[in-house]
Amino acid sequence: MKHLSKYISVILLSFLLFNGENAKAQVSAIIDLSRQSVYVQQPFRVNITVYTKTWFTAPLEFTNLQIPNAFIVPFDATQPGMFTIGGKQYPGIQFYYIVFPYKTGEFSVPPLEITAQSPPEGSSTSRKVVIHTKEEKFTVKDIPKDKKKGTWLVAKEVILTEKWNKDLNQLKVGDVLERTITIVAKGTLPQFIPNLSEEQQVKWASTYPKDPLLKDFKGGGDVSGQSSQTVTYLLEKPGNFTLPAIVLSFWNPYTSKMQDRSIAEKKLHIAENPDLGILATLRDSLQATSGTSGEQVQKKGILHILGMPWYEFAGIVIVLLIVIYWLIRLAIRLYKKWALHRKAYKQSEKYLFKRFLQSDETHLSDSLYKWWDAIDRKPSSSTGFSFELLGKPEKASSLKDLLSRYYHSEKINLSDFKKLIKELRLETLSAKEKMVIGEEQGIGQ
Questions:
Q1: CA torsion 70→62→23→53, rounded to 10°?
Q2: Which residue spans within 142-245 are E strands per DSSP?
Q3: pLDDT at 63 over 50
Q4: Alpha-carbon gap, residue 315 to 76, rounded angstroms
């Protein structure tokens, strides 16, 4: 009895294991890295595709992706679709992450646990399946030696703008001048945007930088960062001075080249001010309010849609709507022209003759008379459809015979009949053409 119980337990365990593996085989996951080797700060994309041989009955559940020494931006709103895998089409779901590594070395994307619900093939009963993606290794390289001078920033594009709190043409000693430089870098995080406050130090004024205000935007399948950097100048010396140009270099991973974006230098004239006693008080006040707490991260800014500010997106939508409106009007006009042309064509002799050639015995008579009306001739049983008038008595006799048999409901050879009518058409059109030429020649004379 013990042996029998043990035997049954082994069979049940094997059955359960088989069914578990069979269920897993219905659902699979593929992980794909857009790049296996990147530089520090260079982002890469981790695509995950989960597919099934049947269908999914519930949303996917998956653990958070964690990679050491890297910032990870999830785009985990799953996108369903059909995917070609091994030459076959499967229904599946796809999601991805953008990874920004900030330290050199050899790393890996760890296995991701995914829970799916899908029925096995041949069944309508859904089963919960837990699968794991495979580990994927990647390398983070150091900044190239010839690029180590100055700042290092990886971005698709960089935009620099500046704003002042005063008119630069009306400055005097003791004025507090505030400059805000806004850096928008596409394809990177705001934490990677370099601080430019040191490049704005001058000898003719005390400078008080504030902590950068950082914003990040996620849209259109990508990430962008913004850093607003404010420096306050306390003007201390009169004279003519130059505020040096601001140059920000960045490495574009798509062109594999360094690019520069800059703000031109400024020529300033600072007038004298007899009331200099206020300078000490202003220094103390500005020192107390200057940035000491590091970077400030602000998550919410101007609404972005598909990676664009809302007003740019709205402008594009308006232009598209205008274009669509005119395209619809053009399409309606073209359709009306086509409809008129089609209507005229369906009433033409050529079209009606084509319909006659395609007709069967049931519709033969009707289609024949419609065509004959279109060619401006009237049928006559005595003339055999004008073959006699055209000098073809033998063909006239053959056509009369076929018509007589057809109207007495006798079986006729449709092919022979249509062949005779085709010859009649050619003869008639030829005769009409000669008649028109003769008329034209008579008018000309």
A1: -80
A2: 157-164, 171-172, 176-186, 205-209, 213-219, 222-235, 239-243
A3: yes
A4: 29
